[in-house]
Amino acid sequence: MGEFEEFGPTGAAFWRAAHQDYEWDAVDEAGLALYCHSLDHLAAMVVILARTAPLVKGSRNQPRANPLLSEYRKHEAEARRQFAALKLPVKEAAALQVRAANIVSLNATKAVNARWARRKASAT
Q1: pTM of the entire structure?
Q2: Phi, psi angle pair for 8, to nearest 5°
């Protein structure tokens, strides 16, 4: 692969970080690509969740958890499995996991700030 144009901002950022210090063979790079796509999906869900309510109306108007929360948890678990499949040494894995968390967290912060800015603007 070698290129990261196929990823969104989150996946591309992690792809670059993963290639800064490590050499990847074709098989491992394919697994890395899957993980980067998963990070992009998680980042997109974070943005959507930041724009929507955590509780939604159920079929009988009862409050229920936003179904996207469950999907997020499933995708997050799958991303963890994909990351574990890369079989990085513990020290390197921890450093890359922190980078991934920071990338997703930054996107979440941006989404929440944008949501509050829209609410503030509509209140005035």
Answers
A1: 0.72
A2: -80, -175
